[in-house]
Structure formats: C-alpha cells, structure tokens
Design a protein that fits this description.
The protein has 249 residues and is mostly beta strands. Helix content is 7%, strand content 49%. The strands form four sheets. Strands 3, 4, 5, 6, 7, 8, 9, 10, 11 and 12 form a ten-stranded antiparallel β-sheet that branches. A hairpin with a 4-residue loop joins β6 and β7. The longest helix is centred in the middle third of the chain and has 14 residues. The N terminus and C terminus are likely disordered.
Length: 249
Amino acid sequence: MRTMGRYVLVLAVGGFLAACTTPDKSVVVTPTDVEGKTWVLHSLNGAPPVNGKRVTLEFQSASSKDGQISGRGPCNGYFGSYTMQQDELQFGRVGSTMMACPEPYMKQEMAYFKGLQQVDTMTSNGLVMTLKGRHNDETITYFAESAKVRGVIKSSTGSFPAGSDVIVSMKDITNKDHHSNLIGEKKIRLDQGVDGPLKFDVPYSPSLIEPNHTYSVAVEVRQNGKLISHSTSNKIIDFSRPLEFNSGQ
C-alpha cells in the first residue's frame, strides 16, 4: 500500500455479474429516459476509444424537449445543450476545456464532438445507448455504468474533517510505463465533518474491463484543495469473484 495520512480502504467488488447481460430490444428514447446515468463510450463509428480511454456522456433535462449534456472526452471535459422534437434529437454546439493531449486522442476527440452534432436519433435498452444519424453513417454507442465497487474508507482518528473532498477512483494499472486509465470515479463532498467510516461506491462500465488486465482502487482526501491523504489498495481487484479486503493489512 502506498499511503500518506491516516486513511485506509476496505473494498468489495459487486454488481459485475448482473451487468454482463443486457435486454435484446432497443427502442427510440428521449433524454429523460437515460438521464441519471453516466454513459461510457463503447465505439465511435465502429472504432473503440483510443487506448481504452474513458469517454462519458450525461444528460440533464430541463423539460421534456430540452436540456444539457456534459461529459469527458478523450482529452477534455465538455458541455452543451440538446433539443428533441417528437423522436428527433439535436445537440447544440459543444464547448470544452482546452487541454492539449497526444495527437491520437485529440483526433478522436474532434471526431467525437463533430459526431455528436451529426446524430438525430437515440435508442436504448437501458444498458446500451446508441446515437445515430438518419441521413449519414454516424453511430455512437455507449454502455451504462451498471456495476459498482463498494467499500469503506477508515480514518485512524475516527473522523473526516468538514470541508474536505474525498475522491475514490478505480484505474487500469496494467501498463506501468504509461499513465493508468481511469475506469470509474466517485467524488464525495463533506460540508460537515463525518464521524466513523465513510461508505462509498464507484460506478463503472463492465465494457471497460479487459481480460488479464490489472486494476486497483485509490482514495484521495483533500481539504480546501490541499491533498491531506492518499492511499492505494495493496491488493489487485479480481473481477472473477466477489472480493473483500482491507488495504491497511
């Protein structure tokens, strides 16, 4: 375990078996049917995300006809709007942060943002969502974050300070020579102090889990933006069976 500070993880992997099966039938849906979930990109015109990068889309409706979208592209966070008339969906212009990334990621991000504005219909079966263009070949497919890693963060003092942010992340750490890929993340804002262990769950999409890859979970605790603790589990997650362990052992 790599750690600074006074916090350890107790983790349990669950939900992955149920998430492996999906209903057969997809129907045309509205954004209100798919909001409340984080949708993870599976393919853009048949191509998977570059190097397994986690690309996401979320809907927040303002009415039955319009609302906002947000998510994470291969490089940048993005945001925009949508409108829907009957079964025809249209996205407004996509805005994003301006962080530079290696060329393969930037190229796919530009294609992804452009693709969003070329689709006009959406189908889903609850676990898989597909955006399509009626008059072009544009197809963007997403899987819902339908599984979770659950656990508890323990403090040696028995409490967590008010005004702190707890960030729990699951990453693919297979390639030691490159940055690890984010698989799922949960941010918890503590406006008030918390006595006792802090429960969490990290949603993720089973579509991002690759055979023979290595996955781990880490927690950061920040107060007023300053890192006060960081801990990484000392045992690797095994998705073939339910698992519980204490990273402080």
